[in-house]
Amino acid sequence: MNPLKSVQWLNENKNNPKLIVLEASLKSTANETNAIMNQHIPNAMLFDISTVFSDTSNPLPNMVPSEAQFTAAARKLGIDSDSIIVVYDTIGVYSSPRAWWLFLTMNHATIFVLDGGLPEWIANGYATSATLKITNLQGDFIAKYQPALISNRFDILENLDTQTKTVIDARSPDRFAGITLDSRKEARSGHIPHSKNIFFEAVLNGTTLKSKAELASIFETVVAEDKPLIFTCGSGITACIDALAATVAGIENLSIYDGSWSEWGILPEVPVETKQ
């Protein structure tokens, strides 16, 4: 299934009663300063990744919530088990892939990312709303956690020895190589040994994803062997952009390292590389 929907498709299907439109928000990212303020896709509801749809009891940012937490939060948005969900963000393709991956992780397949997000919607001349929708409807969604879609530090440690999977890091080349200090003062610089770097911006063409052929070429260049892929980044957000790009390219057997560098970078007992 193609994980993307175009703004044209969304406009044509906006009156579908099963359609749910979500605006994925990250309140703690500098990228929010680039957001389009006070404009939203009509009838969109807020999907708050940082607080509502993350495990806030965990000191690490943006960790996957429990089934119970996700179920309750999704139901408050009026989401049903048969809802068709389109998620977008105000930057283009940035935080929306995280929401997409969370729904997949909670066993909801009819979840799509709006290619180009709000900028593409506006560029095509479609109407916007000054406010987000608030619903009183209670959905019947039931989350069922899919562990194969999430990796943890023990999986990464095991893979250092077995090398049965390829780890893809979505951070910038400078951060990957350890040239740029990590934004988290307590974290070391560098990357997970043996991992490969596909900077998330490399899979984008402005606010939209690159074509399927272009994305396939990017992954073929970096990933030489047909192994399962584990995506990582700073805090589990841009890793999902790469995972989305891989899915569009037709690659399967993917997972996200949920702790990402927020965890790996502060663990003194794990190895770190600082070369390209």
Question: Any idea what the radius of gyration is?
Answer: 18 Å
- Largest pleated sheet: 5 strands, parallel
> How would you describe the shape?
globular
The number of helical elements comes to 9
Measured as a percent range, the helix fraction is 25-40%
Write the layout of secondary structure elements.
Layout: E1 4-5, H1 7-12, E2 19-25, E3 45-48, H2 67-76, E4 84-88, H3 96-105, E5 111-114, H4 117-123, E6 150-151, H5 153-162, E7 166-169, H6 173-177, E8 196-197, E9 204-205, E10 208-209, H7 212-222, E11 229-232, H8 238-248, E12 254-257, H9 260-264
Parallel strand pairs: 1-5, 2-3, 2-4, 4-5, 6-12, 7-8, 7-11, 11-12
Antiparallel strand pairs: 9-10
What do these coordinates show?
- By secondary structure, the chain is α/β, with parallel strands linked by helices.
- It has a 5-stranded parallel β-sheet.
- β4, α3 and β5 form a beta-alpha-beta unit.
- α3 crosses α8.
- The radius of gyration is 18 Å and the shape is globular.
Task: Quickly describe the structure.
By secondary structure, the protein is of the alpha/beta class.
Task: State the main characteristics.
276 residues, alpha/beta, five-stranded parallel sheet, 12 strands, 27% helix, globular
